Amino acid sequence: MIDWLYRYPPLYSGILLKRYKRFFADVQLVSGEVVIAHCPNTGPMTGVSTPGSAVQLSKSDNLNRKLAYTLELIQVHDNEPTWVGINTVLPNRLVKIALAKQLFPELGEYNQIRGEVVYGQDKKSRVDFFLTGSDKYRPIYLEVKNTTWAQGRLAVFPDTETTRGQKHLRELTALLPLTRAVMLYFINRGDCTEFAPGDITDPIYGKLLRAAIALGLEVLPCRFDVSPEGIRYLGLAKLKI
Fold first, then answer.
1. For the chain, is the Cβ count within 10 Å smaller at the N or the C terminus?
2. Average pLDDT, stretch 195-203?
3. pTM greater than 0.70
């Protein structure tokens, strides 16, 4: 029996015609009907937004929504036909479930999970998760980054310059060594076995990540298998720094 971390609702098959204005995608359904779907991904979706690709959409029954369909999955052919998760709302939800199930033994022991905790030198940032245990364990600040870009079997983040991501690295680094700081890369596709920073797209991010690791930042490049049935955790990818 497959241990699903998440099961998708019934999905609708289609072909991506185009993605535009970041939040919109024209999709031709199997029936031939062309619909406008909400694209819940603000990034450039490098390598995973090619017109003509097979996609999967969810459909909401909420009559107040302007767009009934949501783009959930897109199929790529970088290695073999592979589904990639597009909905950036899901990774944090799934990491929360995984944390509750203690699926990441690298984190050690903790008994309290809090989300969106204020931190940072200016106290204007929020870390995705704050984990605490007994007094003998240091608290853990954990940030999640959705990762969909691949170069062969290598998952790469970021796929564009990210000043926000740079800020998160600086703030996590400032916590060391008094507390534990963890960067969890949610590899939203099952065909990648390795992970590296995207030096081509954001060399500053790559330098900051390597400097943070040298000071004690922990990196968890987590692999997830994605299919129209659901999402399951595969374990860690090999970190290439």
1. N
2. 97
3. yes
